[in-house]
Amino acid sequence: MQASRIVCGGVSMVAMKALPRHALLLGTRSLHGAVPVAMTARPFVGTIRKFSSMTPPPSSPNTNNTSNVDYERSDKEAVKDAMAVRKADISENASLSPKAPEKIYGIPSIDTSGDYNLPHPIWHADYVESVEQTHVAPKDFVDRAALWTIQAIRFNFDWMSGWSFGEHTRAKAIVRCIFLESVAGIPGSIGGILRHLSSLRRMRRDHGWIHTLFEEAENERMHLLTFITMKQPTLLFKSLVWGVQGIFFNFFFAAYLISPRFCHRLVGYLEEQAVTTYTKILKGIDEGNGDLSKWRTTPAPEIARQYWKLAPEATMRDVIAVVRADESHHRDVNHSFAGMGATDTNPFKPGH
Fold first, then answer.
1. Alpha-carbon span 150 to 292, nearest angstrom
2. Is residue 4 helix, strand or coil?
3. Measuring CA to CA, which residue among 242, 174, 249, 208 is closest to residue 336?
4. Read out DSSP for 244-301?
5. Could you please report the per-residue DSSP string of 149-190?
6. pTM of the model
7. What angle separates helix 260-287 from helix 141-160, to the nearest 10 degrees?
8. Pick from 191, 189, 186, 153: which is nearest to 277 by CA?
9. Taking Cα atoms as reference points, which of 159, 184, 172, 127 lies closest to residue 284?
10. For residues 309 and 107, is the Cβ–Cβ distance under 8 A?
């Protein structure tokens, strides 16, 4: 028995040495979510077979470096192939929101830049310019409670941020957007992790909600990362974010345990208000001659051009427009979730 363990251990060590460091790192990172397992499983089967059939590199110091470079190049090609296959799969199989016309979508974006962004919609220009402000009328006490909560938050946020009086300037808009997005990224992450934990406890499928909730949370975070390229928050501002984030996180966490429907309806109403805010900003850019109008010619941040696949000549006006399209999508998704049962199948596929 001891001899067999020694033999097995030796074989394992040989197999590990045959794999280059880059491949082992990729495998490790996929466990932590940096490279989704679904994106790597099929293509890397062939890669592992390829490595297992290779003769281990010579131990001579004169040839080791060359072999490692070759193996590293093979790994990078395998990653590139994996991403291409994943992109083709989503483009072919992803279904659209039942409420949205097909023309609004391009293909879901698959990031190969090394940032590992989750799939998200890339909007057609005609849809971006046609986003409408909509409102779902409350049907019962749960819906009304969600609406009243958002109305109270909106009222206090408006006067505290100076939005309800005076001219709407770029400075006011940036502060408002940064604060809004620092909070808007919380609900999706809480909903996703609680449904994930529920799936683990109950040992059954989640019906596809988890990926959409985490995609929403990351999308809101990308809005924040875009806006902070325009203005770096002060220490006081960050302290306020910490406080509000702690209050809202715990409130939403407890509320989601009690009534997921209330939470999704609340987020739906929150996103209605976000669409209203970004529509007002766009109106100020397009129709006014004030400070906001300068965003017509202000170049879009590089992070925004990469994330939304914007044209090189894109401006901040284009950024505000695609952010509004994202928020309208979150609005429709969460209102849809609020009207569904916890075990209903999610109609929104990855990237939609």
1. 26
2. helix
3. 208
4. HHHHHHHHHHHHHHH-HHHHHHHHHHHHHHHHHHHHHHHHHHHH--SGGGGGGTSBPP
5. HHHHHHHHHHHHTTTTSS---HHHHHHHHHHHHHHHTHHHHH
6. 0.68
7. 40
8. 153
9. 172
10. no
Closest CA to 167 of 313, 47, 281: 281
Q: What six digits make up the tokens of 256?
A: 């989601």
| Residue 105 pLDDT level (bands cut at 50, 70, 90) | very low
pLDDT tens sequence across 57-76: 444 444 444 444 454 555 66
Q: Residue 66 has what pLDDT?
A: 43
> Which one is predicted more confidently, 224 or 1?
224
**Cβ atoms 317, 62 nearer than 8 A:** no
Q: How many CA atoms lie within 13 A of 32 on its CB side?
A: 6
Q: Pull the structure tokens for residue 3.
A: 């001899």
DSSP for 38-56, please give it: HHHHHHHHHHHHHHHTSPP
Cα 151 to the center of its chain, rounded Å:
26
Q: How many residues does the chain have?
A: 352
- Dig out the tokens for 252 from the structure: 């939403």
Non-local (6+) Cβ contacts of 233 within 8 A are 178, 241
Q: Phi, psi (5° rounding) for residue 299?
A: -60, 145
Q: Is 49 exposed, middle or buried (0-12, 13-18, 19+ CB in 10 A)?
A: exposed
